[in-house]
Amino acid sequence: MSATTATAQAVRLGPVSGRLRWRSVLVPLTTGVVLVLVSALSLGRGDFPIGVGDVLRTLVGLGDPSQAFVLLELRAPRIVVGALVGTALGLAGALFQTFARNPLASPDVLGITQGASVGAVAAIVLAGGGGPAGALLGGLGVPVAALAGALLAGSLLLALTWRSGIDGYRLVLVGIALWSAAAALTDWLLTRADITDAAAAYVWITGSLNARTWDHALPLLGTLAVVLPLALATSRVLGVLQFGDDTARGLGVRLPLAQTVVVLLAVVAVAVAVAASGPVTFVALVVPQIAVRLTGGSRPPLLASALLGAVLVVGADLAARTALPQALPVGILTAVLGAPYLLWLLVRGRRRTT
Fold it and tell me: Which one, out of 204, 209, 276, 287, has a CA that is 20 to 30 A from the CA of 144?
């Protein structure tokens, strides 16, 4: 092993060699530690306060049985769902932004989360109105309807963008159009709903972790157990794709297949996350750009983005429950944090073009 730069080293293991950037290793490790501490702090806050030390002892099986019940049965599902949702959104944002080579490429901008909102609002509004469509949506339930809406929006995005491959610029333009159409459809559904159904729909579309159970966490965990390793396996392809389509073809990348796999992985990650918690906005937009600045790389790192997404959602939920006079849905707080960042991106992009 010999040093090549101050931040990277050449590593050789038998016939395999490569360059290791220590910031790319330290940032995920540090973020993982922060995630554990923030989760423990969040687990201890509530009507029955529990110290962080007692929380950690309970998690390793050394705590009081009454505390174990409160932590593992009542509070842990909410924290686990929040961490998994943040992981999925951070991963999806990194995939979209790297593929499109555009920091504005996120599920919120591309219409996928809005597609999930259409499905969920339709399930809430039409199920209360009766009829065949209402019976079908009512039978599916809000999470499944949201999952179907997100997958449909992602499929439309892929189909409308495809022209012997997927162009990142066209992806963003088509996504914005889909977002606008889905938002209009959501508004139309809300205008025909009665006040009770409309109130329930508004609670869902703000993004919330309230009343989450292990039934919400298990589908997320199972999906991420498949999607996350597959996404990490595309890291080399993503590194090539950022140099342009012609370069990727010249290096032997099967471009249409690689592009389709990356977009599908991102869409599935977003779909299951939104189905579990509602649209927790701006996480997928902000987190990859924070991760790329922390690691000092040329593109958003997948693992660091996923872990930072988990920290952001769990931390925002903790702040929304404890730091404010009244508890708020986590999606409101992430929107408050992310909206100024979006404006800054737009202003910076305009300055660069002028």
Answer: 287
**CATH code of the domain covering residue 144:** 1.10.3470.10
User: Which 3 state secondary structure label does DSSP give 16?
Assistant: strand
Coil, helix or strand at residue 20: strand
Residue 117 has pLDDT above 50, yes or no: yes
pLDDT digit string, tens, across residues 219-234: 899 999 999 999 999 8
Asked whether residue 114 is assigned to any structural domain, the reply reads yes
Q: Can you give the residue range of the structural domain that contains 289?
A: 86-353
How far, in Å, are 16, 56, 115, 131, 137 from residue 128 at the CA level? 61, 44, 20, 9, 10
Distance CA(71)–CA(48), nearest Å, equals: 10
Distances, alpha carbon 183 to alpha carbons 108, 114, 334, 349, in Å: 11, 6, 19, 25
Tell me if residue 119 falls in helix, strand or coil: helix
- Bigger pLDDT: 135 or 180? 180
Give whichever of 46-55, 139-148, 169-178, 195-204 has the largest mean pLDDT.
169-178
The angle that helices 302-322 and 76-100 make with each other, rounded to 10 degrees, is 140
Q: In the chain, how many domains are there? A: 1
End-to-end CA distance of the chain: give it in Å, rounded. 46
Distance CA(354)–CA(3), nearest Å, equals 41
**Helix residue spans in 22-167 (DSSP H):** 22-44, 52-59, 65-69, 76-100, 107-110, 112-129, 131-140, 142-161
- The SS3 call for residue 301 is coil
Q: For 265-300, how does the pLDDT look when each residue is reduced to its tens digit (9 = 90+)?
A: 999 999 999 988 889 988 999 899 889 988 887 788
Does residue 332 form part of some domain? yes
Does 236 map to a domain?
A: yes
Q: Is 10 domain-assigned?
A: no
Task: Output the pTM of the full model.
Answer: 0.86
- Pick from 129, 96, 68, 87: nearest CA to 234: 96
